[in-house]
Amino acid sequence: MGRVVVDVMPKPEILDPQGKAVVGALPRLGFTQFTSVRQGKRFELEVEGPVTPEILAAAQQAAETLLSNPVIEDVVRVADAS
Amino acid sequence: MGRVVVDVMPKPEILDPQGKAVVGALPRLGFTQFTSVRQGKRFELEVEGPVTPEILAAAQQAAETLLSNPVIEDVVRVADAS
Question: What assembly does the database describe for this protein (chains A, B) (predicted)?
Fold first, then answer.
C-alpha cells in the first residue's frame, strides 16, 4: 500500500491567525526560541498499489484543486511517503 | 535563519471527518486512485540562528504540549528544514 504526502501552507503574504496564536502562546510556556510560526495542512493519501509517477501527478493535481485554495495557499510538497 | 517543521496527524483510531470529506470529494473530481485520506497539521517554526539539537528538543517538547493534543493526535515529525 502506497502513501502520498501533500503539504499545504498559507502563502507568505497571507495573515495566518493560527500561527500568530501559536507564536503568542509559546513564550508563555517557556519556549522563547521561536520568532515566527506558520500553520498549514498535511494530507496523507493512500493508494492500493505502489506510488507511480501517474499517482504523484494525480496527487499534485488534487492538491492544487481540492486540497488547497490557490488564492491563499501554496502546495509546498507532494511526495511518496510509502 | 533556521526553520523547524512539525507534523501532527490524528491518531489512526481517531475518526478524521476532514479526511473523510476529502476522500468523498476526490472521486467526484475524477480522482479515483485514493482509498483513504487523513488530514493533519504542519507547523513551520522559525528561529534566529541555526537549528541546534537544543532547538529541536524544544520544538519536540512544544509539539507534544502545545501543537498537538496527545489524546487524539500524534507528533509524526520534528525536523530541521532550514
Answer: Part of the FGAM synthase complex composed of 1 PurL, 1 PurQ and 2 PurS subunits.
What does the alpha-carbon distance between residue B42 and residue A68 come to, in Å, rounded to a whole number? 13
Q: Which domains does chain A have, with CATH numbers?
A: 2-80 (3.30.1280.10)
Short-list A22, A15, A58, A56, CA closest to A37: A22
Rounded to two decimals, the ipTM of the complex is 0.93
Instruction: Note the pLDDT tens digit of each residue in A3-29.
Output: 999 999 999 999 999 999 999 999 999
Q: Which cell goes with A59?
A: 496527487
pLDDT of residue B1: 87
Contact A9 B66 (CB under 8 A): no
Neighbouring CB atoms inside 10 A of B17's CB total 9
Contact check, Cβ <8 Å, B66/A26:
yes
Q: Is the dihedral of CA A11, A17, A18, A23 positive or negative?
A: positive
Cα separation of A66 and B23, whole Å? 10
- Using alpha carbons, list the distances in angstroms from residue B74 to A22, B13, B80: 18, 11, 18
- Contact flag B45-A66 (C-beta cutoff 8 Å): no
Category of A30 on φ-ψ map: left (φ > 0), alpha (ψ -120 to 50) or beta? left
